[in-house]
Amino acid sequence: MTPTATQPTTATAEARCPACGTEQSAPQVLLRGHDRLTDAPGEFSVVACADCGLAFTQPRLAPADFHVYYPETYNAYEPNARANASLGERIGALQRELLVRYGPYREIWRRGPGKLLDVGCGTGDLAAIFGRHGWQAHGIEPSEQAAEHARAAGVEVVTGTLADAPWREGSFDAILFNHSLEHVGDPAATLAAATRLLAPGGLLAIAVPNFDSWHRRLFG
How far is Cα 125 from Cα 1, in angstroms, rounded to an integer? Predict the structure, then answer.
C-alpha cells in the first residue's frame, strides 16, 4: 500500500531558522511548490532567514512523515554500482571517484586510510570508494533497503540516524555528509553529534546544495 498524508506536520507555528535559530515572524517566501520527486501530498515553501540568509523549507517534516517523502523508491536508495551497469551508471561511478579525489573530500583522500563514517550513506557508493582504497568504511542510513545495498558494497552500515549511533566518542578519523545534512531538521545538533564522534585531528567534510547557484536561478 502506498502511504499517504494530507499535509506535512510542522513542529512550530512560526518558522525558526535551523542555522541561527532566529524566529521568522514574517519570513521572505522565495518559492512555493509540492514534492515533484515522489508526488507526495502537501505544499511547501522555501523561505529565507532575515538574519543569516539561509534558505530552508517550511514546514519541516516530522519523523512520522519521513516514510511518505522518503519511500523505498527514493532515488538515493536505488543501487548504482552493478555488474551490468549502463554507460550512464559507469559515468556516474567515474564522477564519484573524481569527487573523492578532487572535490570536497580531497583533503580526506590525501590524508590517507583511516576509519571513515558516511552519514546518510544511501547505497554506499561514496563510502565504498574509500573502502576500496584501504579505509575502514562505515555508514549510517535510515533506509534499510539502501543499507543492505551498502553492506553488499562492503560498507559497514548501521540503520538509523546519528541519534542511534552506537560508536564511542572519537571513533572516526573522517566523517562525510554528502548531500545529507540538508535533510535533517536540526543541522546544528547533528553536526555537534558528528563532531563528538571525530578523533582528535579528524576531518569533517560536507557537501550541500548552493541555493544561490546559477542552476537554481535558471530553473527556479
Answer: 29
- For the chain, percent of residues with pLDDT exceeding 70: 85
How far is C-alpha 196 from the geometric centre of its chain's CA atoms?
Answer: 19
72: left (phi over 0), alpha (psi -120 to 50) or beta: alpha
Closest CA to 126 of 82, 165, 164, 95: 95
Neighbours of 43 (CB within 10 A): 11
**Span 16-53, pLDDT tens digits:** 788 888 887 777 888 888 888 778 888 888 888 888 88
